[in-house]
User: What shape does this take?
Amino acid sequence: MSQYDVVIIGSGLGGLESAFILSKEGYKVLVLEKNRQLGGSLQIFVRDKAIFDTGIHYIGGLNEGQNLHQSFKYFEIMDKLHLHKMDMNGFDKISFGDDPIEYNHAQGYDNFVEQLSLQFPKEREALKNYVTLIKEVCDYFPLYQLREDEAPIIGTKYLDISAKDFIAGITSDPKLQNVLGGSNPLYAGDGSKTPLYVHALVVNTYIESSYKCVDGGAQIERFLTKNIKAMGGEIRNYSEVTKIVERDGKITHVELKGGEIIEGKNFISNIHPASTMDILESDKIKKAFRNRVQSLENSSSAFIVDIAFKPNTFEYKNHNYYHYKRNDVWTGMYQIGDAWPDGYCAFIPKTSKSDKYADSMTLLSYMQFDDVKKWADTFATIPKHRDSRGQDYEEFKIGKAEQLIDEVEKKFPGIRNCINSYTSSTPLTYRDYIGARDGGLYGIAKDYHDPIKTFISPTTKIPNLFFTGQNLNMHGVLGVTVGVIRTCGVFVGQNYLLNKINKA
Assistant: This one.
């Protein structure tokens, strides 16, 4: 029985990036993935010859010299990715109800101010102030700038400020307030909870630069996997970890479904910390910590409709849409019944087939796990068994999909005539295929009232058990990458690792 230096549970971006770093540094690494497909939210799927992303609808910070570009250079994938730059003057378009104007989020901070000033001419100074403060907030998180960070996160400024209140303090114009917060489904923005730093770190990366992954984001997983294997790392799918076993104060092995034992010197969990606690057999983790992790609220989930278009019927648009029925972008996740959907995001993938026409569109609207709780004891992880939850579940999905498409038809008249087919997914889909607790889009929900509660340390009371992934401190490609630097920094030294990344 071979023993590994590091066993990583979960092949999401955090698991793969950790495997790359540690393999590169000479560790014998094994990644275990329970599903067939690797990559977590990097996964894609194909329906009617159209490619759909499960999570990576667009990426920011990829211009030369920007943080994610530099990280991807280190991971030896930047020059391999097939990317398409989005509209410079409006990569995101925000719209409301019957208001015919689409409000633009532009790339580049000066351009961001310029484009919104055209639509809000009296608010130019407020917009300048907004971008200055957003950049200032980001500077208080040095790791996001790939700078050395010795200060504990607890001492960081801006943790206990509300994103909604911050924006309201910038401008008294209610429409502009909603426009500035309009892309908040990127982080499940909740006006009563979401901290300013979450808003700032997310919007900053897209304002810096915004790109689509041509033919889907799975290329990130594919290139990372190839690089890991080239350095001697091992990756196994269909390998679900059902037990993490501690003996004499250290994790000795994990047990897979089916009973196989895998030994290791160190273990990194890239699954939700609460799910880790579920399978951890140890009395070294105090009950209070287990209860704290188990009780953490997860971010909102979503209902997704993935539309495959008839060939050459729907023109490609080089931007995303965030549409709201009301002039309120901060409470959509709480709308139910006839009030649902309160709004939606529309993402149009870029394919290599055509520059003029789109193959598909992904629609996303908030949905709470409670809406599908009656089917919570059912599980579907095999595509051909998608209907295994029963006919009433399928009817529920069809009803919701039709409601959502009805709303989108108002914005894109005639879009129904372009639809060849569609599939839909619910919070249960996110739970079963991605391993998201409660189907949460972005892991543990952040709350400015108690910000420290939702920061998870990469280290645990068990010296050879570590966390990584979107639940550490932030989600998204950049957030996960920063979390990986914190986790792997425990092994090789954080400043050593940052130096390697910056010199890549």
User: Anything to note?
Assistant: The first helix runs from residue 13 to 24. The chain has three domains: 3-68+215-296+448-502, 83-212, 300-441. The mean pLDDT is 93.
